Amino acid sequence: METVRAAESALMARLPEGTLMTRAAAGLAAACATLLASAAGRPTRDRPTRTARLYGARVALLVGSGDNGGDALYAGARLARRGAAVTAVLLSPERAHPAGLAALVRVGGRVLTPADTSSVSSLLRSADLVVDGIVGIGGRGGLRPDAAHLAQRVADAGAPVVAVDLPSGVDPDSGEVNGPAVRAALTVTFGTLKPGLLVDPARTHAGEVHLVDIGLTPQLPAVPELAALESADVAALLPRPSAESDKYRRGVVGIAAGSARYPGAAVLCVAGALHGGAGAVRYAGPAGDHVLARYPETLVSSGSPHHAGRVQSWVVGPGLGEEPAARELVAEVLATEVPVLVDADGLRGLDPDRLRTREAPTLLTPHAGEAAALLGTTRERVESARLAAVRELSQRYGATVLLKGSTTLIADPDPRGPVRANPTGTPWLATAGSGDVLSGLAGSLLASGLPALDAASAAAHLHGLAGSLAPTPPSATTVAAALPQAWARVTGTGTGTGTHGTASPSPSAFPLP
Length: 513
Ligand SMILES: NC(=O)C1=CN([C@@H]2O[C@H](COP(=O)(O)OP(=O)(O)OC[C@H]3O[C@@H](n4cnc5c(N)ncnc54)[C@H](OP(=O)(O)O)[C@@H]3O)[C@@H](O)[C@H]2O)[C@@H](O)CC1
Ligand SMILES: [K+]
Description:
The chain is α/β, with parallel strands linked by helices and about 525 residues long. About 40% of the residues lie in helices and about 15% in strands. The protein has helices at about 1-10, 20-40, 65-80, 100-105, 115-125, 145-155, 200-205, 230-235, 245-250, 265-275, 290-295, 325-335, 350-355, 370-375, 380-385, 385-395, 435-445, 450-470, 475-480, 485-490; strands at about 60-65, 85-90, 110, 130-135, 160-165, 185-190, 210, 225, 250-255, 280-285, 300, 315, 340, 360-365, 400-405, 410, 420.
C-alpha cells in the first residue's frame, strides 16, 4: 500500500485538510444509502419511495482508531443527518478520530464501546446495516483479539456489512487472510482498487466492490502492480481475420494431449482450440479417432508432434498420463521454436533451467496443486498467497504463468509489469475438463500471434465468461460450446444471455497500485 499512501500524500499536500476524507465519507454514505434503499424492496403505500428506507434505519458503525474509523464516523454523521439512527461502537474510545466523532455526536449519533456488551448485542441484532471501519490500508496481520471478537459478533448477528476501503482483517497488498476477517456484502473503496479486493481469499470477503473517485488517479504510478482487463481491452486483442487471411495466416495450433486412458482431455482441448480464432487445429496423439468423431475439422495425425506439420504454437499436457513417454513428449514440444503452452500432466517435473533457455514464449497453466509441485511447497501455501506464488513461478521458470483458481492470476517473467487478475469466472468452472478447454483456447490465441500474457488473459476472460453463460451447472463441454457466445459478448457482436459471473467493481478503474 506504499504507492497508495504516496499518492494520497501528494494529493493531500495540494488540498485543504480533510478534503480526501470528506470525499471518501460522502461516497461511503451514498453507497450505504443506496444499499439501505435497495434492501427496502418495492415502494409500498406506507413507504412511498425507495429512499424513505434510510429514514429511521438502524446503522451500527464499527470504529477503529485510524482514519478508516474516521471515514465511518463522518459517513455515519451524513446518514444521521438524513434520519438514520446511527450508533458507533468505538474499539479505542480515547483514540477514535476526534473530528469524525464530534461530527457524529453533533447530529445525535450514539456511542458505545465493546464493553457495553448487552447494548452492543442488541444493536447488532437489530441493525439494518453495519459499517466496518475497524481498519483499512493501515491493517497488518490478522485482526487483534478485541477487533476479531467484534467481527465475530457481527457475523453471528447476520446484518449486512459495508466495509470501508477493505474488509477489516484482509491483507491489502496480497489478498491473504490471516485469521478472522470481516465478511462484507459491499466494500466501498477509495481512489484505487487494492489487490486484496481482487485476489482470493480476500476477494470473497469483500462482496461487491464499489470504487469512489477521490481524485487519486493522476498521482498513481503509470504501471500498477495488479491489473485486470475489461471486455473492451480483450476485444481489442482478439484476432479478426482480414479479407486476405487463409488458415495459415490466421495461425495453426498443435495439440499434443490425451492418451488411450484419457482421450476426453484431447477432445476438450481441441474444443477450446477450435474456438480461439486460429485458422486450423492439428492434433497429434493416440486419441485422434475420438477427436475426429467429435470435430471432423481437426487435422489429425497419430505420430509424434514432430511429424504433425507446421504449427504456430503447441499445447502439450492435458490427459497425457504419468508415463515416462509423457515427459519425452513435453521435451520434444519444448524443443520447437514456436510458443508452447504446458498444462496438466505436462507440468510434472518441468526443468526451470530448460525452460529458461527457450527463445519462444512458454506459457504454464497450473492449478494450485500443480503450482505447489512446481514450487516445492504445499497447495495451501499457494492458495493463501496466490499473488506471491504466481510471481515466484514466472520468475523461477522464466515463463508466463496463468495460475488457475478462484481468482485466476497471470504473471509475465518481466517483474516490472503488473500481474493480471481475471475479473470473469465462476466457481462452477472448477469442473473436470474445464482446464483442458482453457489450455486449447489459450494455445489457439498464441497461434494467432498474441503475446503469451495477452493470450492467457484473453483466454481466461472468455473462458470465465463462457462458464457464466453456459447453462447451470456447466460442464467442460458446455463451457466450450458457450465460447462463441462469450466471444460475441466481448466484441459486442451479439447479445449473450446470462450474467457476468464476476465480483468485479462497477466502474472501469482497473489499474491497481
Ligand atoms: N490517507 C488518505 O488520504 C485517506 C485515507 N482514507 C482512509 O484511511 C484509511 C487508512 O487510515 P490509517 O492510515 O489511519 O490506517 P487504518 O487503516 O485506519 O488502520 C490504522 C489503525 O488500525 C489499527 N490496526 C492495525 N492493524 C490492526 C489489526 N490487525 N487489528 C486491529 N487493529 C489494527 C492501528 O492500531 P495501532 O497500531 O495504531 O495501535 C490503527 O489504529 C484508509 O484505509 C481509508 O479508509 C480515506 O479517508 C481517504 C483518504
Ligand atoms: K474496514
